[in-house]
Design a protein that fits this description.
This protein is an alpha/beta fold. The chain has 8 helices and 15 strands.
């Protein structure tokens, strides 16, 4: 769990960020304050890992606070002014959120913080994060099955179902292909047809409009071929459709 403090002189801005924190299970808000001078008291009373810190505040702005702190917690700046970004990153802030802050942008910043926290602590959070990145769960035959990404050969869409093919077995689930695609790393997996996603590392051969993976023949559509071959061969070797 990552303990946070929200520092902002605007009540609505504080409320928005606290609401976002409450929606993310690895963040915990331990306090809020309206200016930088109040931060020290909260740091003394709590174990704080992260500051969501506004810049423009009365008495002392957020950047001035970071400059005088000998060892500040991880910090994400929240501001309506984009012109402070360079100075903020010079002070080693992890991210810079422009108001009004959308939840998806906030979540991306929180994920960056979580990775940094895990690497810094090298604890169970790191192990959990690594496992979450390497696998996911889907519902098959009334129970949830763990799918390891490195075991996947390809994913096939069949009407309202998807079939995840691994070397050991097939997993059939009531999902759309795009639901599975969202869980896959785009550097390792690629859609090659409207109904197929393949693991790039598992491809054995490509022959015109067909891909072979461990003896499985997967169609390669003309539309996707122009995206697939440069990805596999690299732009220097890819000379166009053949």
């Amino acid at each position: 769990m990552i303990n946070c403090i929200v520092v902002d002189d605007e009540p609505l801005a504080r409320e928005c960020i606290v609401n976002y924190i409450n929606q993310i299970d690895f963040l915990n808000c331990v306090g809020t304050c309206t200016n930088a001078l109040e931060i020290g008291d909260l740091l003394d009373k709590n174990q704080v890992d992260l500051l969501f810190l506004d810049i423009q505040m009365p008495k002392m702005n957020g950047l001035e606070f970071l400059k005088i702190m000998k060892k500040a917690p991880m910090t994400v700046l929240t501001t309506a002014y984009p012109n402070y970004a360079l100075e903020g990153f010079d002070l080693n802030v992890l991210d810079y959120l422009l108001k009004p802050i959308a939840f998806n942008r906030f979540f991306a910043a929180a994920t960056k913080v979580r990775k940094q926290h895990a690497l810094a602590n090298q604890n169970d959070d790191h192990v959990q994060l690594k496992e979450e990145e390497e696998c996911f769960f889907i519902k098959c035959d009334g129970k949830y099955e763990k799918i390891y990404l490195d075991a996947i050969l390809y994913v096939e869409a069949m009407q309202n179902y998807v079939v995840i093919h691994t070397e050991e077995r097939r997993y059939v689930s009531l999902l759309f292909l795009k639901n599975v695609e969202e869980k896959l790393n785009q550097n390792d997996f690629l859609r090659v047809h409207k109904s197929y996603i393949v693991a790039l590392a598992k491809i054995s051969t490509i022959d015109h409009h067909e891909i072979d993976i461990k003896g499985h023949k997967i169609p390669l559509s003309r539309l996707y071929k122009k995206k697939v071959l440069p990805k596999i061969l690299g732009n220097k070797l890819w000379k166009g459709d053949t």
